[in-house]
Design a protein that fits this description.
With 179 residues, this protein is an alpha+beta fold. The protein is built from 6 helices and 7 strands; from the N terminus they run E-H-H-H-H-E-E-E-H-E-H-E-E. Helix 1 (11-18) packs antiparallel against helix 2 (22-28) and helix 1 (11-18) packs antiparallel against helix 4. It starts with a strand and ends in a 12-residue tail after the last strand.
Length: 179
């Protein structure tokens, strides 16, 4: 099993990443970051997280952070929730693994870390993921953890997404019949 933790970032780090300034982000980040973090592909996510942190600084403890591989001491991607639990106790998970680290179990490890946290948080009742219909690897991963389709939504960056949910209290391990 890949040993990761999600390292949350602050408003100043988000700002540096939005600006594409890796050196400034690294001067402020609790862990070193690599070029994908400051690249154009992830900039839209950092822009959203910066706006959230500016509006509510406490939201940074919930939103996208670094998937940190504890063994290799390497940042391998980004993961977190889209924000704190809403009034219905729903949190939505988002994650992306840097291309050079894919197919090594990091997405699974990040998902499990986020599911464990959701289960431990008294305000969280439901965990949601939204997946593009053409993203079969993410769908196959979510399916193993008891997520069920509840609808569709349009995302400004990703287009059409299928929405899946599961109760937060379920185990953060694959279902025996799915694993």
């Amino acid at each position: 099993m890949t040993d990761v933790r999600i390292v949350h970032l602050s408003e100043p780090v988000f700002r540096a990443l939005v600006d594409g300034d890796l050196a400034a982000a690294n001067a402020l980040s609790p862990v070193p970051l690599t070029p994908p973090f400051a690249g154009e592909e992830w900039r839209g996510v950092w822009r959203m997280r910066l706006a959230q942190a500016e509006e509510d600084p406490s939201s940074a403890a919930w939103t996208t952070g670094v998937i940190w591989d504890e063994e290799s001491r390497t940042p391998v991607g980004r993961a977190g929730y889209h924000g704190p639990p809403d009034e219905d106790g729903v949190v939505e998970i988002g994650y992306a693994v840097a291309p050079e680290h894919r197919r090594r179990g990091y997405a699974r490890a990040a998902l499990e870390a986020l599911l464990r946290r959701a289960a431990e948080e008294p305000l969280v009742r439901t965990v949601r993921v939204a997946i593009r219909p053409d993203n079969e690897p993410s769908y196959l991963l979510a399916d193993q953890y008891g997520f069920v389709e509840v609808g569709e939504q349009w995302d400004e960056e990703d287009g059409l997404e299928v929405v899946y949910e599961r109760p937060a209290h379920l185990p953060a391990t694959p279902s025996p019949d799915q694993g």
